[in-house]
Amino acid sequence: MVLLKYLTSLLLLSQLLLLSGCTHMIFHPNQIQYYNLKELGIKHENVFFKTSNGLRLHGWWLEAAVAKKASVIYVHGNAQNISSHVRNVAWLTKYGFDVFLFDYRGYGYSQGKTELDGVISDVKNAIEYGINRSEKNKKPVFVIGQSLGASLAIYSVANSSYKSSIKALFSVSAFSDYREITQEVLDTWWLTWLLQWPLSFTVDNTYSPVDVVNKISPVPLVVMHSKQDEVIPFHHSAALFSKAEMPKQFRELTGRHNEVFLIEANRTLLLDELNKLIVYKNNN
After folding, report:
1. SS3 59
2. Which range marks the domain in which residue 79 is found?
3. Domain count, the chain
4. Residues 237-241, mean pLDDT to the nearest whole number
């Protein structure tokens, strides 16, 4: 009887996932506001910009608290919205960086329904907005992607018409392939363990970063990952780095997946790399 219930549940789950595809497992948006920027004492502006098909997306432009050195376009992870991710990068304002972070369609105050094709388009539009706005102050522009955001950013920068305006891409805790990460996620749940291979092939692999990371060059690429990452295994970033063309750097982080930029040593590592690239830019 127990076996019959298990097999029935497995069949129903497999039919549901095969019909809908597994791509929806990647996105976990909500509209909850986790941190209030006024309470955190961060000077910012609410930003609304349009997608190519007319949706209105929301973001925050955080102002540098000291003399402006550069701008950062931040592409966040798969869950919640920018209000839960802002602590990963808001600290950069203390060191002279403007920070632009935004929500994909269906996240936070952004309009639309979340799906992979649309989210890829959203990242493209956000990079365009961030670069156009940053060009007014004639300072370097960096793209930092974290987790899912890093995988999205790799594809977007590799195919961007604005590559000449991007001083470097930082890939933090990225996965290399949509189907591979889906298999690994399904492998952790007893109910989907047997189905990890067939279900992973329902995922759209068109935008897998490992297939395009070599196209980021000549934009410098800095790959960062922690061996303690319990969500996205370290080998994903190793695979991306091996496929990337020069110029590239690999910097090993410490800590668990969601805490890397809450750790001072990791912040220092990121800041050092940003400053080195700014100095290099100014000397060339």
Report:
1. strand
2. 2-282
3. 1
4. 98
